[in-house]
Amino acid sequence: MYIKNNAKAIDQISSVIENTSELDFIDTPEEMAFQVKYFFDSEYHLNQSGSLLRANHIVNRLSEEL
Q1: What are the beta bridge partners of residue 42?
Q2: Is residue 2 over pLDDT 70?
Q3: How far is CA 8 from the centre of its chain?
Q4: How far apart are CA 21 and CA 15, in angstroms?
Q5: Cys bridge to 40: 25, 29, 32, 45, which one at CB 3.0-4.6 A?
Q6: What is the rounded CA–CA span in Å between residue 37 and residue 54?
Q7: pLDDT higher for 3 or 52?
Q8: Which element (helix H / strand E) includes 18?
């Protein structure tokens, strides 16, 4: 999985963004890492099932925050 192979770099980037911006994060990179079966043609494009899973996750997290 992409996130496992790049965990250190992803954690560093995430920490820099969290510590230097005024953005509120509602999830972690790990929460947004999906299994290979949810990808379409690359690690950047989710298939229909992956898109629905991601959308539901975001809706649920936003509902908790609002």
Answers
A1: 45
A2: no
A3: 15
A4: 10
A5: 45
A6: 13
A7: 52
A8: helix 7-20
pLDDT score of 1: 57
CB 54 within 8 A of CB 46: yes
Instruction: Output 46 or 6, whichever has higher pLDDT.
Output: 46
Residue with tokens 């609002």: 66
pTM over 0.85: no
How far apart CA 22 and CA 4 sit, in angstroms, is 27
Q: In what helix (H) or strand (E) does residue 54 lie, and over which residues does it extend?
A: helix 48-65
Rounded distance between C-alpha atoms, residue 14 and residue 29, angstroms: 8
Q: Which residue has the tokens 């965990």?
A: 7
Q: How many residues does the chain have?
A: 66
